[in-house]
Every structure is written in C-alpha cells, then in structure tokens.
Design a protein that fits this description.
This protein is mainly α and about 160 residues long. The protein has 4 helices and 6 strands, in the order E-E-H-E-E-E-E-H-H-H.
C-alpha cells in the first residue's frame, strides 16, 4: 500500500541520495517547472503568473518594472489624501483605497515569493522611491501642507497594511 503523495510527478516516499536531497530542499517540482525555495539570481523565473516571464530576458525586465510600479503605487495609495469630509461617501472611498493598497501589497508579496533577488531589489527600491516621492517633502508632495498645523518633523509612518 503506497501512502506517497505525488506532487507534480515527485513521489514524496521515493528514497533519494544525499546529493539529490539538497537539491530537493532548495527546489521543488511544480507542474514540470523547477521552483526555487531559496534566493537565487537569474532571469529564468516565474513571477505572479504561470509561465511569466519565462526564459525571455525582455519579459523578465518587464516583470521587474511591473513589480517596481506596484511598490511605488502602494506608497502613493498609502499617502494619498482624497477627502477631508467625514461622511458615508468618504468612508466608502477610504475603504476602497485601503482594499486597493492591501491588494497591491499582496501582489508584491506574491512576486517576492519567487525568491528572485532581482524581484526583491526592485520591490525595495520601488518602496523607497515611492516613499521619497510621496512620503517626504523633497518634491513638495509629502505628508501635510503648509497651511496645516501639524508636527513638521519627518517621521516614518506606521507600518501597516
């Protein structure tokens, strides 16, 4: 009676040699494609969608650009002040913005789960650029305006999704 679990053609009860055990601990077969379980550097990756970007360098660069834009958009949505009113429409709008921010954050997190170093770097740089543009007063669009009475010291916003 075989109690092995077949995961994409890899029977979990198969005995393996010590050298293949290390390979199995760092990579996993998923639908015939190798999935990395540790950080790696390379353009052959699977980010967000099955088969994307594949082995094309151009598509990999596009995927990195998409992850970068997602991270910048998270910072923009996190710091956007759409309304100052306190009514039902404002509450619904703020709820939709919160849902958008959380959805974008989850997409970046899923992209990071590819364990690709390039994706990690562009996600961090995207958040940093987004914070620089939208979270500081370097470009005149930071938190608060000149006519508001609030603490003018630069502080990191609370870390929350």
């Amino acid at each position: 009676m075989d109690h092995g679990h077949d995961m994409g053609g890899m029977n979990m009860t198969q005995s393996s040699s010590p050298s293949s055990t290390n390979t199995n601990m760092t990579m996993s077969h998923m639908n015939g494609m190798m999935m990395h379980m540790t950080f790696y550097w390379g353009h052959k990756a699977q980010i967000l969608f099955s088969g994307w970007p594949g082995s094309s360098t151009g598509m990999y660069v596009l995927a990195l650009f998409v992850v970068f834009l997602l991270a910048v958009m998270i910072e923009w949505v996190s710091r956007s002040r759409i309304t100052k009113r306190n009514d039902v429409v404002s509450g619904v709008l703020l709820t939709l913005l919160h849902a958008l921010r959380v959805g974008l954050a989850y997409l970046v997190m899923l992209a990071l789960m590819s364990f690709n170093v390039g994706v990690f770097i562009v996600a961090v740089v995207g958040h940093a650029v987004g914070f620089l543009v939208f979270g500081t007063r370097v470009f005149g669009s930071g938190r608060g305006s000149d006519d508001e009475d609030e603490d003018r010291s630069l502080k990191l916003p609370p870390l929350s999704c």
